[in-house]
Write a structure and sequence with these properties.
Distance between the termini: 9 Å
Number of strands: 2
Strand order of the largest sheet: 1-2
Strand content: under 5%
Largest sheet: 2 strands, antiparallel
Structural class: mainly alpha
Helix content: over 70%
């Protein structure tokens, strides 16, 4: 296990460096000049002022020197300085990261929990009306655009019924502390987390159902039935345990996508996470901040994948880590 963890950590570091170099190249190939954006916001289009801005932030240097400077700072844990927000990139990301993690993890738990449960029920009731209903609802959530679902959730559950706040992370200018603040954040979290989770839940329902039905036809399940074991025991101990592996694989991939997919949800619900931070950085051509968000997002995806590999071992001890 220790050798596996060390090997994966080394691979993660190498992949992270490769992703950073690739992102740096792609971002600098994109059209737009950050110095022009800053000069426009300052209301000064003087060429000398624009040239001074380029010199101040190193934008006048050749590409390879900018890349080497960035990588040397990156190796020391320094993600650079946001010339748009006048603050270190790492501190800006760390300030927003908890909100994104809360949203992504909540959506992940909702989608995986409800998806596996609904998939098991659908497989157990194959061909019945409940199976058709679950499959239809799952297909409906999968086919519905995420932004439309988010807007309808706001319109229905916030504007019409008034059950949950429509926007934000917590009540503005509130003096909540402790459990009262946690409850306030939880109420703001419901709509964005459920909206983001429902899209991925649909996939888990279909994968779990198909995998359960496939395992149900295998010989060892027939043998368990012949031994007279209860159907509930067969489903839980023999079928679900083997059928869950494809779901775990997919969940590991989706866990990373949830961080990226949160950009749209954070924008619609005004959730102050790194998704909105990335959107703001993109609009203002804030290269360092954009690169920092990309790098942290990539690191989260790699860590989620490592966690998935470890989870394989827990789900099925027969699997060897290598």
């Amino acid at each position: 296990m220790l050798r596996f963890l060390i090997g994966r950590v080394v691979k993660i570091v190498i992949i992270l460096f490769a992703i950073t170099v690739l992102n740096f190249c792609l971002i600098h190939m994109a059209p737009g000049d950050p110095a022009l954006v800053m000069a426009g916001e300052a209301g000064d289009a003087d060429p000398q002022f624009i040239e001074d801005l380029r010199r101040q932030f190193g934008l006048d240097q050749p590409f390879y020197i900018q890349l080497w400077t960035y990588l040397s700072h990156f190796a020391q844990g320094d993600l650079g300085y946001s010339y748009r927000q006048q603050a270190p990139v790492l501190s800006l990301i760390l300030e927003r990261l908890p909100a994104t993690l809360i949203l992504s993890i909540s959506a992940f738990v909702i989608s995986l929990g409800l998806g596996v449960l609904a998939g098991v029920v659908a497989a157990a009731r194959q061909g019945r009306w409940s199976d058709s209903l679950i499959s239809t609802v799952a297909l409906l959530f999968y086919a519905t655009p995420l932004f439309w679902m988010a807007l309808m959730a706001v319109l229905l559950f916030s504007v019409t019924f008034g059950w949950f706040p429509a926007f934000g992370y917590e009540t503005a200018a509130s003096s909540y502390t402790g459990l009262a603040r946690a409850w306030d954040i939880a109420r703001h979290l419901v709509l964005p987390a459920v909206t983001l989770g429902l899209f991925f839940m649909a996939t888990y329902v279909r994968i779990t159902r198909a995998s359960m039905l496939e395992v149900n036809r295998l010989d060892f399940v027939k043998t368990a039935r012949a031994k007279g074991l209860k159907p509930s025991v067969i489903q839980r101990r023999h079928v679900l345990r083997n059928a869950i592996l494809p779901v775990v694989t997919l969940a590991g991939l989706h866990a990373g996508q949830l961080v990226g997919g949160a950009v749209l949800i954070e924008t619609v619900f005004a959730w102050p996470g790194i998704g909105r931070l990335m959107f703001e950085a993109l609009q203002s051509r804030d290269y360092n901040l954009l690169l920092g968000v990309f790098t942290v997002s990539a690191a989260l995806v790699l860590l989620f994948n490592l966690f998935t590999d470890l989870l394989y071992r827990v789900v099925d001890p027969r699997i060897r880590l290598a």
